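re: ur question from earlier - yeah i can do the single chain one, its not a big deal. heres the input i used so u can compare w yours
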Amino acid sequence: DSLIHSCCSDLVVSLYNEYQIVHSNLEQLNIAQETAESVAANNRDASGDVEMGEALDAVTLSDFNRRRGIFTSHLAIIKEEIQTAIDATLLFVKNPGVLCAIGKKLVPSSTHSLDDIIKIGETIFPLSSELRKEFNKREPILMELEELEAEQQELEAVKKSLQGDQLARLEELRHIKYHWDAAAAYTRADIEQICDWNFSASYLMLNTVLSRKMIIQARVNELKANNLMQGEGGDATVISNVEEIEKLEADVEALGTRAKLLANTCMDNLEDPRHYQQLIEMVFSKREYDLVFTMAKVAQEIIQKHDSYRQQLCTLARKIFLLQAEEYVLQENREPIDKKRSALLAKYTKEFESLPDLLYGVDFERSTIPKGLPHSSTLPLPNDASQSYNTNSLDKTYRQGNVRMMLNSALTKRQAFEQQYEADDNLGIVRPKEELEAARKQLNEEIDVVVQYCFDTVKNPAHLRVMYTTASSFGDHKLMMRLGEQFIRCVADLRKIQEDKKEIRMQKQKLEEHERELKAQRKSLPADEKEQLRDLQFDYQLEQVLPSYERDSVLKYDEAIWKMFSGMLKASLDHKQKMDTELDVMERTPHLVRGKSSWNAEKITSYIDDTKQA
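and the output i got, formated as tokens:
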């Protein structure tokens, strides 16, 4: 596997290096010919554009064409060899990790190798899918082998052994595992490794395409700026070299479309929230703000799926622990076991053990030792497995991060537009008012879509506070007020839920107090009250594994509402003071206001009136 990797990698990289050298020589030849034609045209006092070859003598032109033909032919041969090498690589290399490594080595030559990088990356997904199927086949077999090996060791300790079909099955499974272990290491990859390969392929393809798009877009911007400066003496909106700019803009649009299609393919093969977060951050860094929202929505669905399953397992594990704790206390006190509760415990245990493992949002290193149970010298304490699932990593780390990134991306897009408009305005580029208003309206509508999506999906007030802080960092006072109001409504709803539980909590407290009073008299609760208290305590303990924001006290919710309200009030007063100061300066000395110094009196008056009305 290592030898194949080295051979394929070295071959493809060396061919692309050679291709770049020849291509560079061809470009230098074209530049040399253009220079020679320009010199010849100047010597002849020629005016206007000269077509390639028009100003050269026949001998010189023939030499240029001869050398161009050699380079072009050489490029065609190398390109054919590259495709042969790529096809051979994909035929013989089945290790996704190796393919990722080869693809990364082609990134420096991505101007020419982009298609092959994507071809390699897309090949990784079906390979990973097959490896995942093999993993799913291996798991039950390995578990069966582990059980038989453990049983065999126990028997060998007393000088015995498995017999008959069991012994034959043990030998069969050992033989199967021997062949698995003898195969290439990548064929025994676990789910985490397989997911990492899919992520590496996704990152490689998207990063390469978007980086290439950014390079071309920068060239477009440079051409526009340079050609605009050339026309500075006349109309500032006149741009030459329109054909070249239009061609580059078409390339930018094609790469954008390709990136969107690739993103869909990648998201079909990703399920780890951590991978989504890293991809979205990369896409944001490439200024692909619309794609950020698209990917973040899919990430939110993935997170919701994992988190709902986490809560299901957490609640089930908690029920099992509480029932085991009941039996533990009864046995310690030498009281009879409730058969109905034992049957319920068996039911929950069977259900829990039949469910597949949770891959994300679980921490098996957290302590499962329960607190509050009496110590026994004869009985082992039951483990509280719900503590392993009672985490907030999916919600606090990934869901909250997505919410922040979605809003930040939409606001950054609008900010970039305003900055570009200000720069154009300073250069004298005038845009029609209708076009400007339509663009701003579109950007604001996109922000509204993001905000409304978050309102529909976000349940944790902390995420709304993060959105409020994000809007504040962009100075969007109107959006801050909207987000603050939603935060208060969300907290108020949670507060009402806790208010509605007051009666049940008081009933539980009264029964607990009554039980303590009776115990002091060496008595116990009547059977019906004892059962009622047990059920109330059971439900209360189940609530303790709900997300923390769902089980705060009424007082804490009140504090959160007041903190947001007071913050909104201060922000409103600060905003009014800031606007009053800005309007006063504009009225007195408009030429000192950045970004508005070129406005005429009518435009300034209109802005002041509109702002005061707002």
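Residues 46-50, 230-235 have pLDDT under 50 and may be disordered. not sure if urs matches, ping me
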